[in-house]
């Protein structure tokens, strides 16, 4: 149920005496063996069609390659409560995001035992974003943090210990807002020259080419639905060119040779 609908219905209700009485939970009554929230996450597949539960369990278990067991409890609305035997497995899954099932984004949230499942808001998901066409002079950790704030909260910038991040592109891990169109890039002015800095999203799969939203594709798009009712479909403003090839090697895996000691080639960093 949408939050607005629930709030509207609540305003019209008149509670009875029994309904108005508040039940207070004693902390000692909470069993220790059910305090497993730190081992759990809730995952939601952003798809307009239903999810095959058994296929989801088998596929994700194989992809994650965990050391311990994992269980999946279906919650409805393409949501699953996922419990891990080992906290290390849970952290491995969270740090490896984004994950996809059948090319649809699987957005995740950690479980807070004091909150209800219905109260969870799936608003952000971390992606590695590549910033292309940057002048070398601004390819730094500080610049990456400031320049990508418009996308969402910055998690980290791939850079060396001294803050430099020279290479073909600058990689920034950002919590992308799932309710806003993907940013395709931004203008940068350096001295008298303007540069268009294009963004590419690593491991990006299904998303809407009309409006750039990650949470739907095709039928769920208002622009597409209007076109089906007779309106002219405008040219797509987004496309597969927003997908970035994941970098499997560290761009800073460079070698420095020579130096003052002995003149022999030495690997120093």
UniProtKB/TrEMBL annotation:
Annotated DUF4283 domain residues: 38-110
Ranges where the Zinc knuckle CX2CX4HX4C domain occurs: 193-222
Highest rank taxon of the organism: Eukaryota
InterPro entries reported in the protein's UniProt record: At4g02000-like, DUF4283, Zn_knuckle_CX2CX4HX4C
Protein name, per record: DUF4283 domain-containing protein
